[in-house]
Amino acid sequence: MSGVLVTGATGFIGGHIVRELLHAGHEVIGVSRYPLRPETRHLLGRDVDRLRLEVLPGDDVDGIRRICERHRPDAVVHVDAVVDVAGLRTAPMRALESNVLPTLRLLEAARDTGARSVVYLSSIAVLPGIRTEPIPVHHPTVTATEGPGGGFYGASKAAAEVFALEYVTSFGMDVRIVRPSAVYGFGMQWPIGLKPLVEGGVDGIEVDLGTARLPSRDFTHVADVAGVVARLLEHPPTAQRVFYAATGGALVSEEELIATVRRQLPELRVRFAPASDADSAAACVESAYRGVLDVSALRDELGYTLRFPDLHDGIAEYIAAYRAFRGA
Question: For residue 30, what are the contacts with CB-CB under 8 A and spacing of at least 6?
Fold first, then answer.
């Protein structure tokens, strides 16, 4: 396949997906609200000149249609989103305008310009409090008593999922949904504990983790998110529409995370401030939708083998990539 349009192409996950697709021989049209970051430029290396980047201001609501009409991509990968979970918790309209309406506009533009397939990057934040483990992809996102556990961010991703799946039913579009969990790796922007630990440890500075306690997570290397997306674009013979991008392993606590980084960066220095009641409450809310995820479909449906199932190996790759970036 050629002609894949990737939104959020200059960001963390988007940049890795762009690299994966370029390495696979695809023509990639990148769309972003921002120009290339130094990390993304470094990540792409010599392939950066193969990326056809369209910088689209966030307030240009008709821009994505113009871009789709100009390039008429065979496939679309929708990564761009506002991922400010805490900021969106009390901002439902911002969540709607940032994450739901742009997805709907993109789906319409993709349908009208003949895109064969769409891959939508969602989140495990669409899950409410978990009912069973390992958590299947058909676990409800809405129950009789609660909705998505990720606040209005989770609600916006869940709403976009519903619209995306209806494009399958109503228009016959090939739409796939990927729900990543705690994505990490070189170029990451949202800290979730790992960024300051790895990059601060490499830079030799004391890492201040503040007051917020990090809930246990299934940390997923960004290369595996990109790999799952690329595999989905190969049109594997599966009827399944929703996939977790995660290791499916036991959740890793903050203490285990620090110990794993410190084994590779022995000079790592970390300090904490006592957690406030508000921080503890926020961590409890986020922990409600985290658990062991059923990722058997990656193997059974997609034939995909995780590149970094072990956190130690994934962190080693992150450290090496960040050191190469710092030395470039």
Answer: 5, 6, 9, 10, 14, 18, 51, 52, 53, 54
- Of 246, 207, 37, the closest CA to residue 198 belongs to 207
DSSP single-letter state for residue 125: G
Give the residue carrying structure tokens 């495990």: 124
> Alpha-carbon Rg of the chain, whole angstroms?
19
Question: Measuring CA to CA, which residue among 68, 304, 322 is closest to residue 187?
Answer: 322
146 in a domain, yes or no?
Answer: yes
Q: Which residues contact 26 (CB under 8 A, 6 or more apart)?
A: 1, 2, 3, 4, 233
In a domain? residue 209: no
Task: Give the span between the Cα atoms of 278 and 129, in whole angstroms.
Answer: 19
Residue 181, SS3?
coil
d(CA 224, CA 47): 20
Q: Determine if the pTM surpasses 0.90.
A: yes
The answer to whether residue 195 sits within a structural domain is no
Summarised one tens digit per residue, pLDDT across range 184-202 is 999 998 766 799 999 999 9
Residue 224: give its domain's CATH number: 3.40.50.720
On the 0-12 / 13-18 / 19+ scale of CB atoms within 10 A, 115 is buried
Q: Look at residue 281 in the predicted model and tell me its pLDDT.
A: 46
